Amino acid sequence: MKKKFISGLISFTMAFSAAMGALPGTGNKASAAQTDWKFDLGGSGAAGGFTGVSASDGYNAGRGYGFSGKVANVNAQGSGAGADAVQFTGGQFNVDLPKGLYQVTVMTGNSPRTTINVEGMPQMINLTGNNAVESIQVPVTDGQLNVAAVAGMNNAAYTISSIEIKQLNTTGEMKPTIWICGDSTVANYYNVKDTAQHGWGQFLYKYVDTNTYEIRNQASSGQFAKGFYTSGQFDPIKTYGKAGDYYIISIGINDKNYSNESEYYEVVTDMVKTCKAKGMNVILVKQQGRRGDFNRNPKLTGRWFGGELDKVGSEQNVPVMDLFNAWQDFGFSIGGYDAMQSYYAIQANGSEDDLHQSAKGADKNAEILQGLMKIGEAQPEPSPSPSTDPSPDPTPSPSPSPSPTPEPLNMGDCNSDGKVNIADLIALKNTVLSGEYAAAADVTGDGELNAEDVQLLQKYLFGEDVTFTEPAPKEDPDKKYFAVDQVWDEGIIETTNSGFTDSRGYINLDNTDTSNITFTVNAAKDGNYMTHIRFANGTDTDRAMKIIVNGNESEYWMQSFTGTGAWTTWAEFGIVLPLVKGANTIKMISTVANQGGPNLDYITIGLTDEPIAETYDPNANQTPTTNSNPTLFILGDSTVQSYRESYAPQQGWGYYLGNYFTSDVTVANHSMAGRSSKKAYDEGRWQTIADSMKTGDFVMIMFAINDAGKSNADRYAPVCGNVDNPSSGSYEWYMTQFINDAKNKGGTPILVTTVIGMKAYSNGKFTNSYTDYCDACKKLASKYKIPCIDLNTIMVNHYNSVGYDTALSYHLMGAVQGSTDGTHFCEKGANVVAGLVAKAVKDQQISGLSQYVK
């Protein structure tokens, strides 16, 4: 149905006076044949030279203009035509025009941000600030132009003060047009200071021949590729785009928040195909980076789906402009981070913007980009093939720029003389005897020098067909992987809060649940690595982060980062992660909306025989507790934890304890690998139990193994030897907190001395271990007159009664071929230990609980 017919139908239903063209508030009258207009919209009359149109002036075919739909007169704070306006709440302004191309200029009223629909499509994007002015060229081929103010900022008025129309030709043919797809770094900005946020699309006119080309910037703040495609911003390009036009796609920064890699690729590909089919020239642009990127060493090589743009460029034979690296090259050429300060914006709160450019920066971006595109100078060549540079932003395993490739080792050349002969065998034997290490001598590649290396080199020298394996770089357990050297999104380098260890600063991630950082670390061999993370959190919120290793998003960890008391107070938390020999990526993603992750200083890794931390299961729920049954909570470490089936045969004794009680008691196991009394307290695991406890409940508490680990600061809680006045940070101090909190809630704390492992076997029998912690545990129970299950001694007696081989079958090293883990239990052993604990409850006649033991 023709627009003119619809408008005519609307006008037919207007009041009779409107149909006669005698509505109030009109200024100059004109016929439908008129081509040039200056409309002053609003109810306060018309400025000089303008035709006044009130909201009550319905469209009239005889007059040739007017409103349809819901509109209202409002005031505005400008002068002349900008002193009043019409607010649009679903209506539009219609003016009949002969066929032709028209220059349409719109001035908004009091509108913080609004988009102008022209011909039913968003064609003036996000005009910001009162009396913002934008001008575009629009073909009119159906006899009528339609204009409306539509959504921009929530809860704001969408208004227009004036519309000026000037015919440019009678054919409706547009001159060659440069269309731009983009986000906030590309968009136009109005009524803002030069130091405020700007987009390069608003400055491109300075660097192309505007006598030849019209520039139509369809970019908007916060936009992503699919949103641009589906929200109408692509519609004018589909409608008006023609052979000889250019379509520049520079978008991706926001896509990771609303979309994903495959959808981004599909949408961009669709837009490229559509425009190519019209004969348009398509240019893909890798977006410029953050100011913080100038602190990177090595230099970052890309962000924001750059790899996907390379793929689309290659497949569709369109050029890809690397603005990211061109911008970096410019920045480094003038001095890097400090020199780039004036090129980045100042936010409304006075803080420096790490992402958006100032007017100066946006202008420079436009200049650099045109230098790459050469629109009007030379057709850019399409990308021959996808780039092999890493694109670290949204890919599963981002990494920084590759370091220069080291010289290959001459394996077997133990004396470094350039040859492999009998002299090297002698040198290798001497090296093994001395206990030193040399990578070229490690011909087995296992990270160690021993008899196996000697035998392999000897076979080689005797002419046997053997293969030398080059070892991975030797792991340095003291190596710090500083956050400032890594790859991050939505964050900046800061030096505001003292206490960080690298002079360049630390990483402050943005307060979103998408900000993230990816560390690249080198492991000497496959194995489990204790990963310490140094952080600061000056809030009371646990700024937990999702941890992904080597891009495997199917299994990940949730690491707690509780408050450290102040942003200047730094702490270390450790988590055991599975790493492979060579390079690994550890990606940490914020999960707390409006908070983000903590400030990050560095991480370290060290090979450990501990099991990896349990991966996160979003469907796992803690055992529900009820008011009708007493609840038996359990708080302990990895030997107590309940493991999912995927961890079989590993299991903790807390998993089976409920099987030894009747249904009249509920067992809730809160134990977790890597926890000590200190860490369970610091990260809030104890608080979760305390908040859930009610009168008549019980809690079993067993710690010691991780408390004794001096190398792990987040766990270490030494015995102080004083239960009456324990020193802060000691095992006794934390256990005292647990005891008092439980008693204050009307619950009964039951202390449990720690388990033993196969290392407790000596001189033909099992003996007690962690005796200082066990003694402190028993003294605490005596002081507070609460039950204590001396599991350490109970297990010693049981293990000695069943013998070494049976005891071995209780642990992973007895159940899994090749395992050396004599600390953790297999399912059989965990079940046996749970039975020992339950029997102790019954033997001790623990009041209120023993009657429920089967």
Word description of this protein:
With 854 residues, the protein is α+β, with helices and mostly antiparallel strands. Helix content is 23%, strand content 23%. The strands form ten sheets. It has a five-stranded mixed β-sheet, with no helix packed on it. A five-stranded antiparallel β-sheet has the order 3-6-11-8-9, with helices on one face. Strands 15-14-16-17-18 form a five-stranded parallel β-sheet, with helices on both faces. β32, α12 (653-657) and β33 (666-669) form a beta-alpha-beta unit. α15 runs parallel beside α16 (771-784). The longest helix has 17 residues, at 261-277. The radius of gyration is 36 Å and the shape is elongated.
Characteristic terms for this protein:
single chain, 854 residues, alpha+beta, five-stranded mixed β-sheet, 20 helices, elongated, disordered N terminus
Uncertain segments = 1-32, 378-407
Class by helix and strand content?
Answer: alpha+beta
**CA-atom Rg in angstroms:** 36 Å
The biggest sheet, with number of strands, parallel, antiparallel or mixed sense and barrel status, is: 5 strands, mixed
How helical, in percent, are the residues?
Answer: 10-25%
- Report the portion of residues in β strands: 15-25%
Query: What does the overall shape look like?
Result: elongated
Number of helices: 20
Oligomerization: single chain
What's the number of extended β-strand segments?
38
Overall pLDDT score: 84
Distance between the termini: 81 Å
In what order do the strands lie side by side in the largest sheet? 2-1-13-7-10
